[in-house]
Batch of 4 targets.
Target 1
Amino acid sequence: MKMLDKERFNKVSESIMKYGRGLEKSLFKKYFNNASDQLVINELKKFQNEDGGFGHGIESDFRLPYSSPMATSVGVRILSKVNSSDESREMIKAAIEYLERSFCKKRNGWFAVSKEVNNFPHAPWWHYSEDLKMTVIDKNWGNPSAEIIAYLYKYRENVRKLNVDNLIEYAINYIENKKEFNSENELFCYIKLYKVLPEKLQKRLEKVISLAIDEVIIYDEKRWHEYVPTPIDFVKSSNSFRFGVLESKINDNLDFVIKKLESNDFIKPPWGKSFYKDDLKEAYNEWIGVLGLKSLITLNKFNRIKK
């Protein structure tokens, strides 16, 4: 079993400190230096607006300063890892209130971003189409709606208007009746929903998520340097539910990440640099920080870092 040695771990850590935002640096310190959650909370506050939602480029590929459901799902995702203090709970409460206000009855869910996204630097996949009245991301209902519903369920004591149980039922019915799966990002959202649900509802999701993953997952190691969904994108720790993902391929994928970090001190965004010009230039380096942190956290959760 291949392991990331201490010297290489330190090199990757240095790259996170060099390229990463304050947010990634604070998360690294939390996970690997036993730093206070307050460091992370202080960084997250920079992205939360007065309306409770998140914006300001917390999702690096769109720099919309205003709140959006997608950015707020990212904010709450991180807050849920540091939710033991009164301050973080208040931030979550405010975010839930924003998500209730931004709910679209007609969609029975959320659109990722508003059309104002076009007024600020953004990658092409975040462009709002006036013809479609949404972005290409919104072609798959579950991204971010399934993830948002996970947080409404987890923090339902803060929910005042929406019927969380009805939304969960809708989300499960949606994926059960879906004929074709082409968005791994939608499945990532459903896995987050799966993780917070009681066993009875998890059972309903297990088979369909497993079938969906089988449609989109790439097992061919020669393609893992591309922007493709790999085994450890779906199975993020040694004790995670496998959803039928092959154990041998999970191990191969972990070896692949270690080899990549051994040949370079950081992971470049596999979708390339061509999108990151002018006002979006800094997002490229931000992604180096995000991907480096993600790789170390995953390797650590599989006990693949030498102590």
Target 2
Amino acid sequence: MELPRLKKSSSSSEVAQALKEAGCVVIERLVSEELMSQVGSELKPFIHSTPFGPDSFTGKKTKRTGSLIARSTSFHELASHPTIVGASREVICQTATTIQIHLTQIIEIGPGSDAQPIHRDQWAWDSFPFPQDWEVEVSTMWALTDFTEENGATRVIPGSHLWEDKLRPPFEETIPAVMPSGSVLLYTGSLYHGGGENSTTESRTGVNVDYSASFLRQEENQYLACPPDVAARIDPDLAKLIGYSRGSYALGYFGDLQDPIEALDTFKDTNNL
């Protein structure tokens, strides 16, 4: 199966359908290179101070920089992009009331970095055996730099979201998600994939934003990454998306059955924001 590719004019439903059929899809040049460059500029100091990963999975020559909502206002446009959020809702909300941002991360694969082991992102939940017809996560990888086969473009196996769990597919079954800056790769949490080997002299940098079912614990702790004093200053819809809202009727309230967004409203009033 080939990796589906769509134009920036594609609807959320078209993107969702591609995810349901192939488990992955590239939308080419969804945002401008200028926006991606601005995101990179705002995050450059944080990337510089991020250590390399401790093992082969995180990448011993790879940097993973989080807390992007608090660190880059330009990044907000990526995290809340209506096409991406809409498609994620359509895929995930077959099994959940709503969705939440699961993690935000810059992934910079440095020169000489080895390929990452092939895996499924949904294994983050203690490798829980979700039913095969459940999709609880949609991951996105935005190309900050151009993604090429040589510099470590994410490797995917289209259609593998329908395979059995806990397989170890050989690297040879993967194909590179080659795409220019401003493009985005979407893939389900059940898709087998991995970061590619970087055999060039330049880093490959991607912006990773994942969305998950609201009844699951987030991989990145959004309430430390984006505490109330920060969340109160961002767009309310984005604040709700990172978890300052109820995940369902009985999930995520505080105090006397209050919605978390009320806490941000109170914070704004108290601090004249």
Target 3
Amino acid sequence: MKATILIRPKAGILDPQGQAVETGLGHLGFTVRNAHVGRLVELEVEATDSADAHAQIERMCEQLLANPLIESYEIVVEAAA
């Protein structure tokens, strides 16, 4: 099953990359606020159903892909074609 995981800083957590993007865009003449930089992870996992896939990916996020203290994540699972 295919999955997409969006990982981003939790609200209220300092995001230096987001601040750098915001500053850089400002220097280029763009007016932006609240820029945040995260990561997008795409993968395929062997699972019996979408609930099993979601549970596996939840463990992956907790153990490796995200830092649960400072990052939040969203998991989207779709059946492989």
Target 4
Amino acid sequence: MMEYINRLKIFLNEVKIEMKKVSWPTRKETIYTTSAVIISVFLISFFLGLVDLGLSKLIERLIK
């Protein structure tokens, strides 16, 4: 049990060291990239919705 606790302490210490090396994005970068993702998702969803609507109408006409 003690070895497990010692290994856990070593692991957590290594995690702490690695977290200090991380290059975190600035607030401006985070807002910019988040906005880009949201806009991309909206545009792709709109496009796929139009494609779905068009294919639905096409299949509906073919069935009649």
